[in-house]
Amino acid sequence: MIIRAATSADAEAICEIVNWVIRDTLITFASTPKTPAQIHETIAEKGDDYLVAEVDGQVVGHAYYGDFRSGSGYRFTAEHTIHLSPAAHGRGIGRALYLALEQRAVRAGLHVLVAGVSSANPGGVGFHAALGFAEVGRLPEVGHKNGQWLDTILMQKIVSQGGNPHPDNVTEHE
C-alpha cells in the first residue's frame, strides 16, 4: 500500500469511490453524483493535503480536510473526509490514510480535527473512536436520504497540544 498526494490522474478513480458512497450507502447524505472535473477541482484546491491510498497500482481510498466553519476563530479546526472502495474496508487502509492526513494537519498548524459521521455508519463511529476521536454531539434527524431521517454524530480529536500555534503555520480564513 502506498499513501501519496492525489494527482489529477486520480480523479476518475476517486470519482468511482465517491459515487459508490453516494449511490449505495448512507455514509453521506449527498445524493448527486460527482464528476471527475469536480474531483479534479478539489484535488487542485487541496494540493498535497488531498491523499490517496494505492494498492497494486489502483486507487482504493482518498482523504482530505477542509474548513470546519467559516470565520478566523475556527482556523485551527478542520473537518476531514475519508472514503474507501468496498474492497478496501477492514484492511488498515483507512487508518493509514487518516494517520498520514493527521500528520499533514498538524504540520499545517491545525489543533482539532472533526468528523461528522452518519448514524447509519456505526463502522465509521468505531473507526474514529479507535483513532482517538470522542463523540461530542449528535444532531438528530439533520440528514434525509432514501426516505430515512439520519443523525449526524460529531466526533473530534485534539491533534496538537500546547499553547498558541506558530504564526508561520497559520492562515487566515474569513
- Rg, alpha carbons: 16 Å
How far is the first residue's CA from the last residue's CA?
Answer: 37 Å
Summed up, the helix count is 4
The H-level CATH homologous superfamily, spelled out, is Gcn5-related N-acetyltransferase (GNAT)
Helicity, as a percent range: 25-40%
The largest sheet, given as strand count, sense and whether it forms a barrel, is: 7 strands, mixed
Strand ordering within the main sheet: 1-2-3-4-5-7-6
At CATH level 2, the architecture is 3-Layer(aba) Sandwich
**Average of per-residue pLDDT values:** 93
CATH topology label:
Aminopeptidase
Describe this structure as you would to a colleague.
This protein has 174 residues and is an alpha+beta fold. It has one domain (2-169): Gcn5-related N-acetyltransferase (GNAT) (Aminopeptidase, 3-Layer(aba) Sandwich), CATH 3.40.630. It is 28% helix and 33% strand. It has a seven-stranded mixed sheet with strand order 1-2-3-4-5-7-6. The longest helix has 15 residues, at 93-107. It is globular and about 35 Å long.
Please describe the structure with a list of short key phrases separated by commas or semicolons:
174 residues, alpha+beta, Aminopeptidase, seven-stranded mixed β-sheet, globular, GNAT family N-acetyltransferase, GNAT_dom
Condensed summary:
This protein is of the alpha+beta class. It has helices at 11-24, 36-46, 93-107, 122-130; strands at 2-5, 51-55, 58-67, 77-84, 112-118, 134-145, 148-158. Helix 1 (11-24) packs across helix 2 (36-46).
